[in-house]
Amino acid sequence: MAEHKLYGGDVTISFDARKHVYTWKEERTRDGSPLMIAGVTSILNRLAKEALIPWASGMASDYFKNSLLEGFDETNPEETITVTVAEVNEIAKDARKAYAKKTKGAADIGKMVHAYAEAFLKGDKEPAPPKKILNPEERLQYDNGVRAFKAWWRNNEVIVMQSERVLFSKRWLFAGTTDLTARINGRRSVADFKTSSGLYPSMAIQTAAYQIALEEEEGDVYQDRVLIHLDKFTGQYGMKILPRSRRDEEAFLRLREADELIKQIEKSW
Questions:
Q1: Count of alpha carbons within 13 angstroms of residue 205, beta-carbon side
Q2: Facing residues of 228 across strands?
Q3: 29 lies in which domain range?
């Protein structure tokens, strides 16, 4: 479990990457254990991700269709397909898990691209390739993600302050880790790399949380929040610059409050 000294060494935040749990070492609960701190990602998970429902349904539908048509001529509408009830039940069972397999694969590639970027930003200009053996599709996506990162680095003036910066708000009691703090094109910025299919409004709330915690600890103003999309399919990058926004900050703080109230309800249920 990694420990991070913040606020001039007065605060020790431990982070369990496997469980994705933050704890504040100096503060204790009634039983004497370190105080668990809400993570930004966990708080944001309270938001409904409406796009995931049709996406997951599509994964199941595609899996079911492809499994039934395997070995048959899909272009011939008159071709008869013969399957047993047992085979249909087995396909249906596996179709329920199709979205999870797809999600895990995408997440793995995303983590590898993030690992490359982290190593590069910490000074290793030739990061080692992934240890995991990748199939051709995975290798292509990884290479595209890396190519997008390199293009972003080349095309922008970046002065790195910290990579994988752990942050914590004593006032609001939340913690998180941002990919990068840096001067990007001359402006003090907090930045996050995204390898998802796109950029979404919840990411504005996420980076606002990072900005709140950083400014509380450091006392310096972060002029911009920067989202860098590394496209695993095209090898191109997109950069969305978000200016300071009281609206975005307020959205996160209200969500933080709601998360705490929901936890209280869950404990008493």
A1: 18
A2: 193, 239
A3: 2-268
Q: Averaged in consecutive runs of 10 residues, what is the pLDDT profile of the chain (269 residues)? A: 92 89 92 92 82 54 61 61 64 61 62 96 92 91 97 98 97 97 98 93 96 97 97 97 96 96 93
The pTM of this model reads: 0.80
Longest dimension (CA), the chain: 73
Angle at 142 between CA 204 and CA 118, to 5 degrees: 55
Dist. CA 85–CA 131, nearest whole Å: 42
CATH number of the domain within which 239 lies: 3.90.320
Q: What integer pLDDT is reported at residue 58 of this predicted model?
A: 58
In whole angstroms, what is the distance from residue 21 CA to residue 2 CA? 11
Q: Is 124 helix (H, G, I), strand (E, B) or coil?
A: coil
Domain count, the chain: 1
